[in-house]
Amino acid sequence: MAWIYLVIAGLLETVWATTMKLSHGFTLWGYTVTTLLAMVASFLLLERAMQHLPLSLAYPIWTGIGAVGTIILGVALFGDHLSSLTWGFVALLMIGIVGIKLTTS
């Protein structure tokens, strides 16, 4: 169950990062409230996951899911342009996240 909490927490990190941008400096209240709720939920689920997973695994996986998810949403929603080399490094990040999970007992 801890891994499920961690994945959901990472996905919520992408939600709050995206809605923070959409809030235009916290001037649009709907996006601002969504940002704050997603932040709180993400942190609470991370805390729940860390009750059963070591910090040295949970935190990097949480940030990795958030980073990769935010990159994908930035490209899909905001038209961010990444070079082929950057996509290669994103792939390495994903390989690292999966590798951490697969090598954890």
Description:
- It is a single chain.
- The protein is mainly alpha-helical.
- The protein has one domain.
- 82% of the residues lie in helices and 0% in strands.
- The chain has 4 helices and no strands.
- It has helices at 2-22, 29-50, 55-78, 84-102.
- The protein is flat, with a radius of gyration of 15 Å.
- The protein starts with a helix and ends with a helix.
- The mean pLDDT is 95.
- One of its GO terms (cellular component) is plasma membrane.
- Belongs to the drug/metabolite transporter (DMT) superfamily. Small multidrug resistance (SMR) (TC 2.A.7.1) family.
- It is a multi-pass membrane protein.
Question: What is the gist of this entry?
Answer:
This protein has about 100 residues and is mainly alpha-helical. It contains four helices and no strands.
Task: Name the features.
105 residues, mainly alpha
Which structural class do the helices and strands define?
A: mainly alpha
Query: What Rg is obtained from the alpha carbons, in whole angstroms?
Result: 15 Å
Helix content: over 70%
Parts with pLDDT < 50 across at least 5 consecutive residues: none
Helices, by number, come to: 4
Listing every helix as H and every strand as E from the N terminus to the C terminus, the arrangement reads HHHH
Q: How would you describe the shape?
A: flat
- In total, the number of strands is 0
Count of the domains: 1
- The separation of the N and C termini measures 14 Å
β-strand amount: under 5%
Overall mean pLDDT: 95
Described by strand count, sense and barrel closure, the largest sheet is: none
